[in-house]
Write a structure and sequence with these properties.
About 75% of the residues lie in helices and about 0% in strands. The protein has eight helices and no strands. Helix 1 packs antiparallel against helix 2 and helix 4 runs antiparallel to helix 8. It comes from Pseudopedobacter beijingensis.
Amino acid sequence: MDAQKVDMFIMTNSKFFEGHQLPMIRERLLEMDDSKWVMIQTLQFKDPTTSLIVSLLAGGFGIDRFMIGDTGLGVGKLLTCGGLGIWAIVDWFMIMGATRQKNIEKLQQVLY
């Protein structure tokens, strides 16, 4: 694929992934054929900052986990009221990483 397209994708979407994953993403995109480019452009990634805000405001109800697609963990947080508050507080520190992990998994489904 064209290096200019790949660099533009990396620049516009770098906040959705961990910094150490960006070189691997760039390599995979450069190796990929142009037929998958449209699919990659239509992917909707979750914003880690939005996940953090939702976690701070309503994390005890599991809404943050439902939002990123962790339905099982969302139900668990909902039923336990955020693990009596402890799980909700722990998620304040972990939800951004979990969101970025879900984003990379979504991208890898298209790349492989």
